[in-house]
Predict the structure.
Amino acid sequence: MERLHRNKISTEKIFILFALLLLAGAMLFGLLGALQYLIPGLLKSRLSFERVRPLHVSSVVFWIIMATMGTAISFLQEHTGKKLYSAQLLGIQLWIFILTIICILTSYCLGIFGGREYWEFPPLLSIPVVIGWILFLINFIKSAGSLKNQPVYVWMWLTGIVFFLFTYIESNLWVLPYFRNNVVNDMTIQWKSYGSMVGSWNMLIYGSSIFLMDKISNNKTYSHSSIAFALYFTGLFNLMFNWGHHIYTLPTQPYVKNISYLVSMTELVILGRIIYNWKHSVSAAKKLFHETAYRFLLAADLWIFLTLLLAIAMSVPAINVYTHGTHITVAHTMGATIGINSFLLLAMAFDILNEGCRSLEPYKKMLNRGILTANISLLIFWLSLIAAGIIKARWQMSGLQLPFSVMMQALRPWFIIFFLSGIALTTGFLLIIYPLVKNQLVCHLKWTIKRRKSSIRTKAALAME
Amino acid sequence: MILDKRKLAMAAGLVLAFLFYSFHLYTSLPAGHKSATAMADRGKLLWQDYNCNACYQIYGLGGYLGPDLTNAYSRRGPEYIKAFLKNGTDIMPNFHLADDDISELEAYLRDVDASGKADPRTFTINRDGTIAQE
């Protein structure tokens, strides 16, 4: 019976599997978008860039959100050792998100937009997102119990859930004319919400990765330590107050920019901690390198270092004035969403999906190739964006005033490298996603067939009687 | 180890500071209550309906397939903008916009242009790493 139950795909796993499909879709939409940079006007009448970009961005954002919810719920149950407060609520939450995401992606294909960065869908579709997230919050609070003696990751999960809800609602304030009808006011509140929102989902992801690290190393001292909480509070402080670096060039209130500049510099503490811990990370890597989940964590560690370095530089207004509006910002986003978030989430997905009727051992070679390909290509991808960004920054600051099209032509060689490395990156990710999804589906199919057979047998026995 | 009470106090303090900061911003918006005209507001909604932000930037934020349009109105003039909106380009589809739609989008771009300068060359870099605009 236990064996039979292990084959069934749990609701948490469906969150992760759906998220993996979104990741695969996001990569393919991203490739199409990159191709539209190389072949201007490609699919202009059917699937032009203003449709492809939101398909890519929303697929990435919902890959992160769905996988984050699935992993946090799964790890929370492992942490408490109890079942979730309500499996029914979780099921409703899952279907609300799946149906909403399908509606969102369909609306883009049909050219129906809300037209806001990140959330480019009509604002009406935000209502089910909020409802689904409230169900997540209720289930989490009821299942986690009190905060007494809780490790840092429980604090991080709770912080992430609460702040995402707040900032998501805040990002929709534009529907009120009071916030919308002045561009400076609108953009100030918009980027305030987005900056903190990214911090919120990072809280959820980093919380889960600390849980996973504790689990792999079989050592829970870090998650209860003072340093873990000191870093958590530094992260929370940044989540709340460092969003202003997105809008240094906007004529908004100067204190918004100054607060952000000062708060961003506290990230140096986190950077210093990474460098200080380097030796420890290397010895842990030697010990745990055989664990596939750990390899993802190790890759993310390197990307945290690179992305944080870039983020701190971009938080200095004097540097930001050069990088803002260039592909260096895109490089930062790609480093954060692919290098950090996606690798951490894949580590968790691997840990959770590895439990099933089929072992992932036969796919170890494929997974290792996928991890290596994804990392090398991501580095090339990242560097090509930085190179393109430097050219654009020089153009922006130049007194020559060359036309935009001339500058774009100069970027073309870097866009070619960007596209080719994007193909390699997609291949790397597909090599990782394929065995994870296939194994779960085969297990589920076996479970369904077994259940059907046993039901036929019971019916036949009853008929015989 | 940090005591639970101290952790809760720190978290509560930060949350209160965040809420104060947020509501202070909501009630004393950076540009005050200088509202756009009804026509510019309709233009902004059209800008969003056609997801123009996917390709163009305002104050450096948005997609990079097209240029930053914050000061396109004063740099290029209304006729140039109208011609673009009416015909599309090699990359931008022709959305077959009605004349009213074109006028509203133009009003929006005029309103954005009047809000400030986005050109990074107009910023002065201070020795403390901050920037200021003339």
Notes: Chain B has two domains: 4-30, 38-118. Helices of chain B lie at 4-27, 38-49, 72-76, 78-87, 99-115. The domain at 38-118 of chain B is CATH 1.10.760.10 (Cytochrome Bc1 Complex; Chain D, domain 2). Chain B has five helices and four strands.
